[in-house]
Description:
Chain A has 230 residues and is mainly α.
Amino acid sequence: MRRATHLLIGLLGLCLPWTAAADGAAVAEGQCAACHALTATEQGEAATLVRAERQAPPLHYAGDKYRAEWLEAWLQAPARIRPAGYFPPAHAQHHADGDRVDPASLPEHPALASGEARAVTGFLMTLRAADGLVDPEAYEPGSVALRMGMLDFRKFKGCNACHQDAPDEGGVSGPEVYTAWQRLQPAFIFSYVKNPTAWDPGSMMPVPDMNDAAVAKLVNYLKVIGEPQP
Amino acid sequence: MSNRIIILFLLAVAGTCAADEGSLLYRVYCTQCHGIEGDGNGINAPHMAVQPRDHTDPSEMATRTDEDLFKVIKHGGKAINKSVLMPAWGGNLSDEQIHALVAHLRDLCCQDAAQAAR
Lengths: 230, 118
């Protein structure tokens, strides 16, 4: 009898992760798919046009992209990462003294309860359609002096035209990058910076003319500004 | 005679399609910095050390040939000794798409002048 009980508990244990992933899939299909592409097919071939109509980042490679612990926490308390939304031209308004983002046009991301967030994260981390783009050995996290990294990011590479590397410092059309290290897997950051259109043919991030060392220097800067300071 | 009309019609359609593509590409890739109206006042402009070019100013745009515009879009500001804040789009856009953008830039800056001359 005791052996049978242990067997039953063991079987339940084996099933639990599958159940959580299945629930997560149902929630993702019900709540996420309206704005996010969950498959490469949904992302679409006509990338430029699709980008203009898309409301949120594609998730079919979420497991290659996000840090699970960050994703689970963010889904429970979502905070805006892209000051001008996912497709900034849809949220910009013309004014005589310059274009401005219309805050009322920016959608709020729904918050999930902790159980749902865990289940959805479990499911999203199984979506790894871009495994082939990630080379875990291509980037070895290193360090760079804060001032040199900032000079490189802002002055030499011009990344701050679109990205903020500190709150309210930098352009608003791209996602903030001072939280990138907390949000994203290092191998993804390296791969995406090196070739954004390989991940997303409609990416609005320019493909840089940089060697691996130059890309690594930028990623190291994101690490320096993204990690808690001692 | 009828063949000539068909050819002129097809050329007009092709021209319209190129203009539409240029306009769409401009909206997706350029307006963040150069502005919805192309006046150099995009949402990123207040955060930039160098003011993006005003594409609606004929005098500013007259200093650049179509070849210059193609080069700066494809290879970035550095290619013509201008700001690195203008990125190179050659890895994102085909040459045909860049030509469509150049044509759209000429529309933005010189449409009024062209209409007045007609």
